[in-house]
Amino acid sequence: MSGAKRPGTTQLRVGRLLKAHGLKGALKLELYTDDPAKRFVPGATFSLQVPTSSPWHGKTLELTELRWYNGHPVAFFVGVDDRTVAESLVKAILWIDADVAADDEPDAWYDHQLVGLRALRDGVEVGRVMRVDHLPAQDLLVIKAGDREVLVPFVSAIVPAVDVEAGTVTLTPPAGLFEDLADETPEPPRRAE
Question: How many CA atoms lie within 13 A of 112 on its CB side?
């Protein structure tokens, strides 16, 4: 990957190769996109995030087919024709050039747009977004608050506003998410002796 991208595009992480599947070069895929039918079409070309020591460093992969086996996506790529080659790609992260102007979802952000934003609660900065964790149930914003990381569910009830241009996310977290709650267990009443 040369690092150069076309004007009007951004790099978008869309998947990770988990393990070889079968003997013909197929790879099980972990999806990081809500729209695999749009991103994983025959002919789609992916930049690879791999260690510099990998033989795949600086190369791209072209998808020939995406199939589903028992609910899991399995990808086939040009030039990946056997299990040995497929195993050399395990753990690679797939990136594409995405057309920023074509995305019309008003409440959708790319991870790179969120990382580094200041997290505000009641107008006061409580930390910065370090990364976004994509879990099956929901996404989590990982906020660096002092010397710890706080996991904040990325749902509108807790993160009501994201302002990329201002560099902020507004949080309305439940009590105890950012501060240690005082022990509110009342002491038992003392008996008069």
Answer: 9
